[in-house]
Design a protein that fits this description.
single chain, mainly beta, 8-stranded antiparallel beta sheet, disordered N terminus
Length: 253
């Protein structure tokens, strides 16, 4: 496979999302990769992985929602092979060959794509070599869930009903409530990807983190929040808190 693009110093993409896909399930699933939420699309064995919610540091390299991280094919239902990309602000994405075992029919929740990643010159875009030992040479993914939405409270106003419907009574806990910021992403009517979108937050938007839900996704918890005068649920993997909070991606700097 031909490597494409101009190449320069290295900034790669890792996100955090977890999804379990069945080989018979052509469609979409969400995963985490190094703190970003990713969308995997399987179209009859042709597979792409794009960014849904890029983490803040990779946004600085020009990555946005919909940016392509990987494009390839599923071989014999158990092996992914194709081209992944590394990013640097002001440069074209640099492509390189990657591959890895992936057997969704047995409920695989994590997988890794490995290859020799491009190494750019220090202050430019030119690719000067390739390395299999850099951290960008191993792309790790964790399953979050399959695409789909449940009918929730479209206005996000009936908090008690949300708790009864989800079976997760929110609890403040000793570290909440506290202020925080979103890194950008959807607010949902319940603690999980299957709940209806009730709003969106931009990177840097202030929120009030009200309570834990006990619902984990990719190592981070879903939290009940107050945003824009409303109440909803936001994933801790795309938030920071003013004071340390268990289950949160990080403490706001």
């Amino acid at each position: 496979m031909t490597l494409t693009g101009s190449l320069s110093g290295l900034a790669i993409v890792f996100a955090a999302a977890v999804v379990v896909v069945s080989a018979a399930e052509a469609g979409e699933s969400t995963w985490t990769h190094n703190g970003s939420t990713m969308l995997m699309t399987d179209n009859g064995g042709s597979v792409t992985i794009t960014y849904l919610d890029p983490r803040a540091s990779i946004r600085n390299q020009g990555v946005r929602r919909g940016t392509l991280l990987f494009s390839g094919v599923m071989q014999k239902g158990e092996h992914l092979y194709g081209t992944a990309y590394v990013f640097r602000s002001g440069c074209q994405p640099a492509g390189y060959d990657v591959s890895g075992d992936f057997t969704p029919d047995i409920g695989q929740e994590r997988f890794e794509l490995v290859g020799a990643s491009p190494q750019r010159e220090r202050d430019g875009c030119e690719v000067v070599g390739y390395s299999g030992s850099s951290k960008s040479g191993a792309l790790e993914f964790s399953f979050v869930g399959s695409d789909g939405h449940s009918a929730g409270d479209p206005e996000g106003q009936n908090d008690d009903a949300d708790d009864r419907r989800t079976g997760n009574a929110s609890e403040a806990g000793p570290d909440l409530p506290v202020g925080g910021r979103s890194y950008g992403g959807k607010v949902r009517g319940g603690p999980g990807m299957d709940f209806e979108d009730i709003g969106s937050l931009q990177e840097g938007d202030r929120v009030r983190i009200l309570a834990h839900t006990g619902t984990d996704m990719g190592g981070y918890e879903w939290f009940k929040i107050r945003f824009q005068g409303r109440t909803g649920y936001h994933w801790g993997g795309i938030m920071c808190s003013d004071d340390p909070v268990n289950g949160m991606f990080q403490h706001c700097q």
